[in-house]
DNA sequence: GTCTATATGACGATAGAC
DNA sequence: GTCTATCGTCATATAGAC
């Protein structure tokens, strides 16, 4: 748990290179997919330490030892899940936060995409949140290379938009974290939100109201361009 | 862990009413304070499941069994820590988000206070985040009564400010969650922020830049009043 | 390749000496 | 009131039968 992962990636599935293990067969792929899906649910519910391999096995409908056979240790399984999540996590920004778009259109599309992620894959969002809360030891290399470059590209986009007078100058890192924290709250803090609204679980209308609130904060900011000219 | 707590509070320290336990003595108070402080650090680092009573005992400088003697089970200790945190958590809003203040002054003071909390008690913020991620089972009653009323008071404040044309109409629940998620990110997501900035830990300048970004989003929103009149 | 049965170790909790 | 030594439980991991 405290061990540092190899710098190449999030800790890719080690089992494929294990000595003595032949090529993946047909049943293996189905089992692997079921285990990964179950792991995402269970890790998302309880975090790494709180989750037990037993529960993942039950949820996936496979015998417990098969998980170790396919994925090695619990931590290696966890890293496989993390890697899947991060691949998804970065996608939307390259579609929306690019200089070719109008600023308002870009922000709106991106924020909608992030809210959709919170609604459709809340477990994935929570696993990421747990990992970051723990100090992000398993993904530090990824954050300080891939994610940092990702933010740098957004900074160039904002720079262009600012020169074109579509938005005021702003610290790009902190604007991105503001957007991420607000949108991810609808997955990570959903228990708190639903307790306050009184709804047992978050309803579509909650996501819609949250989306509108975030849009008004961020798009309203773009309007400030006149005041600061 | 899955058991529901009595509806009276977060699950107050049960040890005081234990049969056969005399009144608290003098050394007890020092030990209890040390244990609570250590528990806040350790639970904040690893969450409930990830933390071990052993580590808390080491950190507090007391033998492990004393923790059980003072606080009963690990979960009861955890609930004591949670209760301490929540008391602090609500304080600032009653100082700042009240109709007597100007809207801009109120939002600025409140956001500064929340950022100060993230900087000064990051472990407390993280414990709360872990608990909410887990589904908030230990604090559900508290969230659906105390916190809900707390939000309702903010809603009345915003209503007044809106009538006085100091800010546009907005959904108060989602505005509060936007502010909470943005400010708490500087404790809960600090590992991610520092990985992106390249600083080993968050520096004062990071908190300041974050504060300015959040202020511009929220105070800029107040300016929108003219557009929507 | 797959699964049953078991080894190993860590943790929470307590009994009982001081 | 305080602490040493220990018990029972449960989870990860593996050895070995099929």
UniProtKB/TrEMBL annotation, chains A, B:
Q: Which GO terms describe its molecular function?
A: DNA binding
Q: Give all residue intervals belonging to the HTH tetR-type domain.
A: 29-89
Keyword DNA-binding attached: yes
Q: Which residues bind DNA?
A: 52-71
Q: Any idea which UniProt keywords this protein has?
A: DNA-binding
User: Residues annotated as region Disordered?
Assistant: 1-26
- UniProt keyword DNA-binding present: yes
| Biological-process GO terms, alphabetical | negative regulation of DNA-templated transcription
Q: What is this protein called?
A: Transcriptional regulator
């Amino acid at each position: 748990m405290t061990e540092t992962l190899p710098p190449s990636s999030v800790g890719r599935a080690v089992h494929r290179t294990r000595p003595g293990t032949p090529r993946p067969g047909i049943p293996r792929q189905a089992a692997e997919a079921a285990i990964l899906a179950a792991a995402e649910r269970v890790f998302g519910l309880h975090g790494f330490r709180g989750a037990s391999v037993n529960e993942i096995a039950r949820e996936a409908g496979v015998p417990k030892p098969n998980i170790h056979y396919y994925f090695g240790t619990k931590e290696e399984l966890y890293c496989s899940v993390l890697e899947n999540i991060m691949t998804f996590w970065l996608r939307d920004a390259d579609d929306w936060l690019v200089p070719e778009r109008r600023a308002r259109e870009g922000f709106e599309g991106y924020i909608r995409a992030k809210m959709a992620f919170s609604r459709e894959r809340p477990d994935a969002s929570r696993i990421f949140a747990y990992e970051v809360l723990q100090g992000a030891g398993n993904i530090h290399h990824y954050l300080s290379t891939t994610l940092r470059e990702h933010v740098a590209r957004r900074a160039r986009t904002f720079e262009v938009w600012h020169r074109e007078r579509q938005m005021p100058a702003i610290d790009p890192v902190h604007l991105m974290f503001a957007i991420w924290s607000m949108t991810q709250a609808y997955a990570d803090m959903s228990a708190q939100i639903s307790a306050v609204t009184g709804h047992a679980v978050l309803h579509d209308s909650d996501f819609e109201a949250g989306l509108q609130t975030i849009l008004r904060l961020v798009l309203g900011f773009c309007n400030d361009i006149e005041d600061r000219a």
